[in-house]
Amino acid sequence: MDALIPFTTSGSLVDIVDKRVLIVLRDGRNLFGVLRSYDQYANLVLESTIERIFHTHKPIYTDAYVGLFLIRGENVVLLGEVDLDMEDEVPVRPAANAEEAKEIMASIEEKKAYKKRTDPVKTDALTKMGFSAIKEEGDNY
């Protein structure tokens, strides 16, 4: 009977070891790399990792090479294998020049500034509704 129960733990990652994966983290970062190892807590080791930074309003992106990357399992929102055949058919293109890359970074900074302005309002509203009022980083969703 137990053999019929599918993997629902980190054991299900065994099929994608040594394959190219996309990982989305809780802070919104998108990482592409080769999954080299994992443990029972879904802590992951990525090799040849790049962080893909997307423009907020245009279908362009830029990549930042980050190399070997260790990710704590609790920070993973999404993990999936990258289909190498389909990867080139995605309608988002890389930044063509340094000017477009600067534009992408400016859009990210604008998004961060907006979040910094609106987070206190959101926190106050949630506090009035009875949610946690802790004002530091952590697991406050």
UniProtKB/TrEMBL annotation:
UniProt keyword list: Cytoplasm, mRNA processing, Ribonucleoprotein, RNA-binding
GO cellular component, one term: Lsm1-7-Pat1 complex
Regions crossing the membrane: none
GO MF annotation: an example: mRNA binding
Compartments where located: Cytoplasm; Cytoplasm, P-body
PANTHER family assigned: LSM1 (PTHR15588), U6 SNRNA-ASSOCIATED SM-LIKE PROTEIN LSM1 (PTHR15588:SF8)
Family: Belongs to the snRNP Sm proteins family.
This protein's name: U6 snRNA-associated Sm-like protein LSm1
Species this chain originates from: Filobasidium floriforme
Gene coding for it: LSM1
